[in-house]
Design a protein that fits this description.
Elements lengths: L5 E12 L2 E8 L13 E7 L2 E6 L10 E6 L7 H7 L6 E4 L15 E6 L3 H14 L3 E7 L8 H5 L7 E5 L10 H5 L7 E6 L1 H13 L7 E5 L14 E5 L5 E4 L5 H7 L17 E6 L2 E2 L7 H6 L2 E3 L4 E2 L3 E4 L2
Parallel strand pairs: 7-8, 7-10, 8-9, 10-11, 12-18
Antiparallel strand pairs: 1-2, 1-6, 2-5, 3-4, 3-6, 12-13, 14-16, 14-18, 15-17
InterPro entries: 2Fe-2S_ferredoxin-like_sf, 2Fe-2S_ferredoxin-type, 2Fe2S_fd_BS, Beta-grasp_dom_sf, FAD-bd_FR_type, FNR_nucleotide-bd, MRET, OxRdtase_FAD/NAD-bd
GO molecular function, one term: methyltransferase activity
Protein name: Vanillate O-demethylase ferredoxin subunit
Length: 322
């Protein structure tokens, strides 16, 4: 990960939908920003020592600005609240260069994009890229109410509006998502991309699996861990630092990263829910108890890395590459 910070100006802040603000970020000197690919996100320092990730939703062709959409979370731990209440147009904030863990597979024959709520942000950048590239795709945007649907005007006025399908829970029955129809056949080399709340992602992926879609062609990005994923701790265990041999005990009510911090081992943490991968750490020995939604099932089975903000241990001791 690029550790350097970039200072940008908030050139615009507007209400995009109920509970959602749109921020436009530009270089303070009017220059170009680092390039990005569809599905990428940036780290944003929303307050001192408070970092959050937000997906870029503008076209990857644009180098003069980044656009993000931020939902005010009712259970905010400070991130979305700071963006809504404290960050204003004209302010200078710090970000890191874009990273992408949700990239489009360029070999796909077509793309089916599903967005739930604020999960539309990376999906929108994908639609912009696919439209520019002339590749076939469909975008299904599901929101509880039309008033909470962000970027709808932009999508309906875009060159790819014919590929966009809006599904509102409070709308007419005929416009609601018919998941089997939207998925269609898995016979060709199509790929599915889904982003949004955990239940929505689970709904899309389970229906795809039932229809025979292989895991390699199913892609997802979570914005928050589900209640079941962010399970409570049950037992204490030990972690050993490979560099010094130091052994630390992680109590049942503490996280690994908290114990490491108290011992003077500072790891950067952002989401604290196993969503962003910021605290991903190599595991040299032991069996992690994975409680994140960042790693894939296949990566969980390898047990060679873990998110130390929320995951724990199935073995009595973990040896970490620290």
């Amino acid at each position: 990960m690029n550790e350097s910070w970039i200072e940008v100006e908030v050139s615009a802040k507007e209400l995009e939908a109920d509970g959602v603000v749109r921020l436009e970020l530009v270089d303070r000197e009017g220059g170009e920003l680092p390039g990005f690919t569809a599905g990428a996100h940036i780290d944003v320092e929303v307050a001192p020592d408070l970092i959050r990730q937000y997906s870029l939703c503008n076209s990857p062709r644009e180098r003069h600005r980044y656009v993000i959409g931020v939902l005010r979370e009712p259970s905010s731990r400070g991130g979305s609240q700071a963006v809504h209440d404290s960050i204003q147009a004209g302010h200078t904030i710090r970000i890191r260069a874009p990273r992408n863990h949700f990239a489009l597979d360029p070999t796909a024959s077509r793309y089916i994009l599903f967005a739930g709520g604020i999960g539309v942000t990376p999906i929108l950048a994908m639609a912009e890229h696919l439209s520019d590239s002339g590749k076939p795709f469909e975008l299904h945007y599901c929101v509880r109410t039309a008033a909470r649907a962000a970027f709808v005007r932009r999508m309906t006025k875009s060159s790819f509006s014919a590929h966009v399908h809006l599904h509102f829970d409070d709308g007419l029955p005929e416009q609601r998502l018919e998941i089997r129809q939207a998925l269609g056949s898995s016979d060709d080399d199509a790929h599915v991309y889904v982003c949004g709340p955990a239940p929505f992602i689970g709904y899309v992926l389970e229906n795809a699996r039932e229809r025979g879609w292989p895991e390699a062609r199913l892609h997802r990005e979570f914005f928050a861990a589900s209640t079941s994923t962010a399970a409570s701790a049950e037992e204490s265990f030990e972690v050993q630092l490979s560099s010094t041999g130091q052994i630390l005990t992680v109590p049942a009510d503490r996280s690994i990263v908290e114990v490491l911090g108290e011992a003077g081992v500072a790891l950067e943490v952002s989401c604290e829910q196993g969503v962003c991968g910021t605290c991903l750490t190599r595991v040299l020995q032991g069996e992690p108890d994975h409680r994140d939604v960042y790693l894939t099932d296949a990566e969980h089975l390898r047990n060679d890395c873990m998110t130390v903000c929320c995951s724990r241990s199935k073995s009595a001791r973990l040896v970490l590459d620290l």
